[in-house]
């Protein structure tokens, strides 16, 4: 295994030599039997993967991403309403916002008012949780060493992922439930713009991708699994930063009040006029990268880099955490300081912490959607609420010291804080 701590080396290998460094670890023993072979992020750098990327890139590129703005705004309205009605459940509301945006943008699915009882949400959450469990180090090592495990009967007590047929059933449900619902809406002429509908239309006559419907079904099924937890976690990191750095929060609010005013909420058209809010967004991605070790790449062939031999099959681990801590680029890296993305005239610099989205051909195809979703939620929260430290029953300030989820995605677990309305 090769752990890459430097952004420059990561670019040199995975971007400049992307033909050689876009494979994934060989997980063939588990992908098909456990139903994970739908997952764009896990499959090899082959013709199936190219079909997936074509679908996601064409429908999520910056030139067309604007069509999902109405979904992002609708979900932001619901988020503000939820935060107003039940502020103590802020953590859950941020995750619900993230789920709503992805399901809306991908399948034109509008969450029901009571998300707990939304059968599509249930299906994708069950599938995603299982997929994340299965693709973590423990199960991969066990299943690769003991492929016979896939036949473990369901009545033997063990982890949820132990029975392969059961996993496959849940994965199929995650992929098919929202897809079939959209097909029905399309047949009734009731479907709005969304990634799946746009892809079915755009690629209907294509000969370039074999079995295009399967590619659309599977790559879009990956979008929820790859996009919900990451987008929601980034917003939770932002919340922590605002609680810990009140002067940053005040400056961002002052910029919104000055440029947008108090009569309306900021929208994505305001983004270029709000450099400080943009800097807060970039610093949030840098400060605590939510996928700290990205997704490992693998070398398709032997290579020599900087005098070192990299054998065929070497697993390359991009250490995004170390890149975010590069003190030559980001002095005092543990401090949340948006000013590092501003020049002397307080304009935004050209530096974007793109490493947070990975590298080369495998770079996150949902990054433009994620960027708009996180930004709109951040800007509208800043305009509408002050996020403050909580007080205990005696009126003493409670310092947030959250525990962090450990796994492929890293984010603060629920911590006490108050969302105090600014506009009454
Ligand atoms: C702030 C939010 C997000 C972050 C930080 C993030 C980060 C990442 C990272 C680090 C990777 C691994 C890239 C690599 O292997 O080099 C990745 C892959 C991926 N992401 Fe995201 N992501 C986010 C949101 C999204 C969204 C909203 C979607 C879908 C709409 C999405 C879809 C994907 C897919 C499909 C892959 C696999 C790409 C491949 O293997 O070819 N992500 N993401």
TrEMBL record:
GO terms for cellular component: membrane. Heme binds at residue 364. It is found in: Membrane. Keywords: Heme, Iron, Membrane, Metal-binding, Monooxygenase, Oxidoreductase, Transmembrane, Transmembrane helix. Pathway: Secondary metabolite biosynthesis. Pfam families: p450 (PF00067). It is a single-pass membrane protein. The keyword Plastid does not apply. Its cofactor is heme. InterPro entries: Cyt_P450, Cyt_P450_CS, Cyt_P450_E_grp-I, Cyt_P450_sf, Cytochrome_P450_fung. Gene3D superfamilies: Cytochrome P450. Its main location: membrane. It comes from the Eukaryota. PROSITE patterns: CYTOCHROME_P450. GO terms for molecular function: heme binding; iron ion binding; monooxygenase activity; oxidoreductase activity, acting on paired donors, with incorporation or reduction of molecular oxygen. CDD domains: CYP64-like (cd11065). Belongs to the cytochrome P450 family. This is Cytochrome P450. It comes from Coniophora puteana (strain RWD-64-598) (Brown rot fungus).
